[in-house]
Design goal:
Number of strands: 15
Low-confidence stretches: 137-164
CATH topology of the largest domain: Rossmann fold
Number of helices: 11
Distance between the termini: 50 Å
Number of domains: 2
CATH class of the largest domain: Alpha Beta
CATH architecture of the largest domain: 3-Layer(aba) Sandwich
Helix content: 25-40%
Structural class: alpha/beta
Strand order of the largest sheet: 6-15-14-13-7-8-10-9
Length: 352
C-alpha cells in the first residue's frame, strides 16, 4: 500500500513541485494539497493521510501554531518544509521541539543539489517519517540496557582529565535535534569536551548551536576549525563541512574538511568517529543516537576496536532506530540505553 501524503503550503507553485516529486516515487501518492491550515484540517479528517508536509510560514495560521494543535489533537508524522534563512531555521527547530519528525529546505536553484537529488532526499525523509515513533507515543517503560559482545578486544578504563583525558563524540540524524538537547541537558558545565555531528544543512547548524547554548550548562558553539578542544565546551559540526579532531602543537583541536560527502552526508558521523579512533583511541567515548541510515556505524566500530567506550540509543526511545541499530548489529555498540539514561551512562564511562 502506498504512503498517503498531504501537502500543506501556501504557494501553488510549491504544492505542484512537491506533488510531482512525491508522486514520482512508486510507493507514495499525494492525496491532497492544502493552501492553509484550515483547509489542511478538513483534508486530514477527510483523507486520513499517513504523512504531512508542512510549510513553516503560512497565512491565517502559521505552521507552528497549526503543528502545535495537530500534535495535541491528532498526532501524526510531519516533515517541515522550510526556507534557508535564520528566521526559517529558528522556526524549524521550534517545530522539531513541538513534534515534527524531520525537515527539509525548500528546493532552490542555488541549493547545491539537482531537483532529482532534492526529490530523493524528500522521499527518503517521508519514508522515514511514516515509520518514525512520535515522541508523545513513546513507551515510558524502557527496557534495561543491552550489552553487545565486542568485535575486537576489550575496553580500558582511564581517568578523566579535560582535553588531556576523555573526550565525548556524538552522532545523530532524524530525531537528533531533540535527542542531542536532552543528552546535553544532563551534562554538567565542567564536563569533558564534546564533539557532535548532527545531519543538518549549513544554514541551520548555527541556529542549532545558539539554541543549545541557551539551554545547556556547557558552552555550545558551531565549530569553526582550529579551536582548542577544551572541557566545558560542545562543538557542533557546521552543515558545510566534516568535523574531525586532530593533534597540533597547541594540543587537540577541531578541524573542518569540505571534502566529498560520506554516506551521502557532509558532515558525516563516520568521519568524526574515524578521527576519534585514530587520534584519541581509548580516551574517547562514542555515542550514537536516533537517525535513519547507517552513518556512524563503521566509525563507532573502529572507535570500539581502538579501545573507546561506545554507547547507543535503544530502539524504544529512538524516533528512527536506524543508525543505532546498524551500529548495534555489527558489534560497535558496547551498551544500549534509553535516551533519558544516555547522559548519565556517558558520564559514568568518562569517569571510569
Amino acid at each position: 500500500m502506498k504512503t498517503r501524503v498531504l501537502i500543506v503550503d501556501d504557494s501553488a507553485l510549491m504544492r505542484g513541485v512537491l506533488t510531482e516529486m512525491i508522486n514520482s516515487a512508486s510507493d507514495m501518492e499525494v492525496v491532497g494539497a492544502a493552501p492553509d491550515a484550515q483547509t489542511a484540517r478538513e483534508m486530514i479528517k477527510a483523507l486520513n493521510p499517513d504523512v504531512l508536509t508542512l510549510d513553516v510560514q503560512m497565512p491565517k495560521m502559521d505552521g507552528l501554531e497549526f503543528l502545535e494543535r495537530l500534535m495535541r489533537l491528532r498526532p501524526m508524522p510531519v516533515v517541515m518544509v522550510s526556507s534557508f534563512t535564520r528566521a526559517g531555521s529558528d522556526t524549524t527547530l521550534r517545530a522539531l521541539e513541538l513534534g515534527a519528525i524531520d525537515f527539509i529546505g525548500k528546493p532552490r536553484a542555488d541549493g547545491g543539489k539537482t531537483m532529482d537529488e532534492y526529490a530523493e532526499d524528500l522521499v527518503e525523509k517521508l519514508r522515514a517519517a511514516k515509520g518514525a515513533r512520535l515522541r508523545k507515543q513513546m513507551n515510558s517503560g524502557f527496557p534495561s540496557a543491552q550489552v553487545a559482545s565486542p568485535s575486537q578486544g576489550g575496553v580500558t578504563a582511564v581517568s578523566r582529565g579535560g582535553a588531556n583525558g576523555k573526550i565525548i563524540f556524538v552522532g545523530a540524524s532524524t530525531g537528533g535535534t531533540e535527542a542531542i538537547k536532552e543528552f546535553l541537558l544532563g551534562i554538567p558545565a565542567d564536563a569533558s569536551p564534546i564533539l557532535i555531528v548532527q545531519h543538518m544543512p549549513e544554514s541551520f547548524t548555527a541556529s542549532f548551536a545558539r539554541r543549545l547554548d541557551g539551554l545547556c550548562a556547557p558552552t555550545v558553539l558551531e565549530a569553526q576549525g582550529g579551536e582548542k578542544v577544551e572541557s566545558g565546551k560542545v562543538y557542533i559540526a557546521p552543515g558545510h563541512s566534516h568535523l574531525l579532531i586532530k593533534r597540533s602543537a597547541a594540543g587537540l583541536v577541531t578541524e573542518l574538511q569540505a571534502t566529498s560527502p560520506v554516506n551521502r552526508h557532509r558532515p558525516s558521523v563516520d568521519v568524526l568517529f574515524d578521527s576519534a579512533a585514530a587520534v584519541v583511541g581509548r580516551q574517547a567515548v562514542g555515542v550514537i543516537l536516533t537517525g535513519m541510515g547507517k552513518d556512524g556505524a563503521q566509525g563507532l566500530l573502529r572507535m570500539r576496536q581502538a579501545g573507546a567506550r561506545t554507547l547507543g540509543q535503544d530502539e524504544a526511545s529512538c524516533v528512527v532506530y536506524g543508525m543505532p541499530r546498524e551500529a548495534f548489529l555489527i558489534g560497535a555498540v558496547e551498551e544500549q540505553h534509553p535516551l533519558d539514561e544516555i547522559a548519565r551512562r556517558t558520564l559514568a564511562a568518562v569517569a571510569r
